[in-house]
């Protein structure tokens, strides 16, 4: 009886440079958004008025990050995860695939609960990935359609939320004015206020939620663990994850699988296609994002315009920007431009899971009381000095590590647990 070759990790020479470069770019860029969740109350991610970033340098930083990067880098990360599904599911069977996803789920729980990162994306990625195995052999056209259907669901959901704020805004303002004047209001009026408060929970959190978040960053680690877990189990996992976040991840992954099947993510298509992607993507994305930011600022950052998920065009803007960046990076890979930058980004991308968890660990040390305790101590623009320092460290660390090893430390552990054996890691001569 003969047996075929056992499934195992991809060898260094078999890696696709364009995917690694794009993954490194997305991984570093995600910190531009996550740093707000690390360093300020989470409501500041959606509402710059929460930290006073409505004028001057702080407002300029908010506009720049929101217009150019919000959602776009997460979109790229999701697309790349979809490409990874295509690569991994090919010839390995269901067993290794589902072990890999289950382990990613555990890494996500570690990130969310132990490292106290409420904005973790590994849990939704692991869950969405569990069903993507079923789509591993779908044709590109089918994948594009499936992605479009999920994006259509999200657009419909965002439209309903937007219309809900629109419908309740006037009556709620009138009831609040009557309450401020000392007038009595009916039970129906109070129910309307409660409904509006529930819808606005993320951008207008009640005092109890604000206190819980303070506890998750201040005090002992045990106190913060309990407060953070309460938020994850109270709203993040039972509400946000099944309603929005899971589908947000799945839509991008399906699109990424289609782009991989057609060679777009591997820099295999014509330069003209990437020029069109870059030009059209950035033009559409900037037009949508600038309009949305203008509406938010023009409304005085009214609740209706604040949540990213209340804009029907939210995904249009972020996916267009993501595709624009994809086009630029693929052109750079095709033409061999910025070789040193590409090598550095590829090193970061090859150990993306290690670097992602490292960002959470650094955020915990810098902002929690058990470390430097800088949470809610820095202005918005000052947070980006921290980002620059983290970038410099992670690039240097990744380049040095990948000169000696095949995999990043967490990637090596992930593979060892997936395949049930220890893959060799040191490069020859090291």
Task: Tell me about this structure.
The chain starts with 16 loop residues before the first helix and ends in an 11-residue tail after the last helix. Helix 1 runs antiparallel to helix 14 and helix 4 runs antiparallel to helix 5. It has one domain. The chain is built from 15 helices and no strands. The chain is mainly alpha-helical and 430 residues long.
Main attributes of the structure:
430 residues, mainly alpha, globular, disordered N terminus
Number of helices: 15
Radius of gyration: 22 Å
Distance between the termini: 38 Å
Mean pLDDT: 88
Task: Write the H/E string, N to C.
Answer: HHHHHHHHHHHHHHH
Overall geometry: globular
- The count of DSSP E runs of length 2 or more, i.e. the number of strands, is 0
Q: What's the domain count? A: 1
Biggest pleated sheet:
none
The fraction of residues assigned to DSSP E strands is: under 5%
Residue windows where pLDDT falls under 50 for at least 5 positions: 1-14
Helical amount: over 70%
Secondary-structure-derived class: mainly alpha
Provide a short characterization of the protein structure.
With 430 residues, the protein is mainly α.
Sequence-ordered SSE layout with sheet pairings:
Blueprint: H1 17-39, H2 56-68, H3 72-89, H4 94-114, H5 122-132, H6 140-180, H7 187-199, H8 207-217, H9 221-261, H10 271-298, H11 314-335, H12 339-350, H13 352-367, H14 380-402, H15 409-419
Helix pairs in contact: 1-3, 1-11, 1-12, 1-13, 1-14, 2-10, 3-9, 3-11, 4-5, 4-15, 5-9, 6-7, 6-9, 8-9, 10-11, 12-14
